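Because showing beats explaining, we let one protein speak, sequence and backbone structure tokens together, and leave readers to judge.
___
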Amino acid sequence: MTRIVLLCLTLFAAPVFAQDSAYTEGAVVEVSSIKVVDGQFENYLAYLQKNWKGVMEEAKKAGYVLDYGVYRNDAHSPQEPDLYLVVTYPNMATLDGMQAKMAPIMKKVTNLSVKEADEASGKRVVMRELLGSELLRELKLK
């Protein structure tokens, strides 16, 4: 019986604790770290300008993406990225089923099927190496 009372108190207290929080959850940012192969910087940026930017613009129109950007990094060692590709999504829920959402956009912009786009992505290794990516959640202070 005591456990049930404690559980009920915990459930009713949870909204109170949430209201006392110093922040609210904001947008979700995906940051991809890119190492550009020597001599391929302009080629890779041309690819981004031609394909990636178009896809991002259409995704913005559809409401899947809030913003995007390419950031240059002055790498201090060969292991560090040269570029960061940053995409801001409205929330985590937007990422659910993202491949299915983006497939028609990719087809419209690049005229490639999902399979063809995947093959083209593999061919970009001559221009760049994806070192990794991470998701960051903005916390908006009240």
